[in-house]
Amino acid sequence: MLMTVPAFAQKSKPVEVIAFGSCTSQNTEDQLWDEILKQKPQVWIWGGDNIYGDSHDLTVLKKKYDQQKSRAGYQALRSACAITGTWDDHDYGVNDGGMFFSRKKESQVLAADFLDLPRNHPVRQREGLYHAQTFGPKDQQVKVINLDTRYFRDTLYREQYIDSAAKNTAYRYLPNAGGDVLGEAQWHWLENELADEQPRLVIINSSIQVISEEHRFEKWGNFPRARQRLFDLLARAKATRLLILSGDRHIAEFSEMKVGGISYPLVDFTSSGLTHTWSTPWEEPNRFRAGPLVIQKNFGLIRINWQGPQPVVDLEIRGHGGVIFATKTLVF
Hints:
The protein has 332 residues and is of the alpha/beta class. The protein has a single domain, classed as Purple Acid Phosphatase, chain A, domain 2 (4-Layer Sandwich), CATH 3.60.21. Helices cover 20% and strands 25% of the residues. It is built from 7 helices and 14 strands. Helix 2 runs parallel beside helix 5 (104-114).
């Protein structure tokens, strides 16, 4: 059953609290919904891996979506705030999957149902889960741009190597120099969305990390030409401030870098591991990391203070028991 947007109203009331997260197993009882609800978010953003579907069988995927959606904590969140977001590989249907997943069209329908997208929503008329949603009144608008980094993504190639620290065989993805992530239709759509002059804050919800580039797993850095194309588009954006959200990694961190054409450091806020994180911690290089690497279960919180001449955005990595693992402040 599709739900309507909760009564806080998308357009009339400024959005001051946004929560987001990714990587939640439908089979895990210990989820963070109670902690998230305590923060009274007006918007929840799914960052992907919203279930661990990992199946070509649509019946299996639907059953897992239904299991996750029926949880009391998530039902309470759906009643309390607006829901938006994207998918990643495990809810897409195949680990590290891209454009050649054979059931992607059918899987898209299930993802749209899980996100409660209306029957007349543009996503239901086109290929790919990408879509945008705007919240708040004029002069205080926040736009969330949900990218689809799966449906059109080119193939990744990987190689095995000996991990000298762990003393075992591991794999790493190799750069696909000419490969694409979004596909031309989504690129053109994104350019149009970024040309919108109304939003004060634009949140780019990517699922995979955009800035961090040294780890061996999936990331925009595996597709250097596409990554640079994204940075070039962001440099032309009309919004006062941009913020990237990502998940996927089962850790949380802030990554920050200077991008040509953007007057402030661009931040990629990674929050991943609503139900599980790394079983064995290790040191992972990230020359763009600003703050600690968080390996506890977590969700992300975005607080927007609209008072004063310039809005202030406070970012928080939070966990069980009200613990705040890390914070970062952005000034418009």
